[in-house]
Amino acid sequence: MSPVSSDPWLVVGLGNPGPRYARNRHNIGHMVIDVLAGRAGARMSAHKARAHVAEARLGMAPGGAPGPRAILAAPTSFMNVSGGPVKALANYYGVGTDRLLVIHDELDLPAHELRLKRGGGEGGHNGLRSISSVLGAKDYARLRVGVGRPPGRQDPAAFVLSDVPAREREELAVTLERAADAVEQVALLGFEEAQQRLHTP
């Protein structure tokens, strides 16, 4: 798909619903969606697909024109059943897996490290597992936001369902902005170019 295609991107940030989970590591996808919506001046609203959704323009094209169209979405289902809302949104907006970008927390990356990938396995991530299962495909793009491994013998599930500690909040804010930058570059430049820029020191 050409990076200058007029087809919109469906950008989905994974997380769990409600204030109890809002600041958890597992909700980093939701946090990035909030940053993107704020940048675009877009208001998230409830969608029948069990998600909060906003249609927006991402970034700024050369010459100062508004960037490409995107649907920003934060499922309101629990993480382990994210696939239903994602499929419903993809069907509603007519978006194929080639224009789907999922943002999620990643235990296998150091905290605050970002990586773009397309396809591959789910690495034990229940949200990705649900999406791949319901879509019957794994070839969608992912933005992996590192949260690191739990200290000592802490259970990984308990770790991702705990809040980002206060000492990391400032760095987290920077990470969320960098993640939003990466999403905008995917929309503006195409996945491969954005991936190369993100991964090049």
UniProtKB/TrEMBL annotation:
One of its GO terms (molecular function) is peptidyl-tRNA hydrolase activity. It is an enzyme of class 3 (hydrolase). The record marks N16 as: Discriminates between blocked and unblocked aminoacyl-tRNA. CDD domains: PTH. Its main location: cytoplasm. TRNA binds at Y21, F78, N80, N126. It catalyses: an N-acyl-L-alpha-aminoacyl-tRNA + H2O = an N-acyl-L-amino acid + a tRNA + H(+). The active site is at H26 (proton acceptor). One of its GO terms (cellular component) is cytoplasm. Keywords: Cytoplasm, Hydrolase, RNA-binding, tRNA-binding. Its EC number is 3.1.1.29. Belongs to the PTH family. Catalyzes the release of premature peptidyl moieties from peptidyl-tRNA molecules trapped in stalled 50S ribosomal subunits, and thus maintains levels of free tRNAs and 50S ribosomes. This is Peptidyl-tRNA hydrolase.
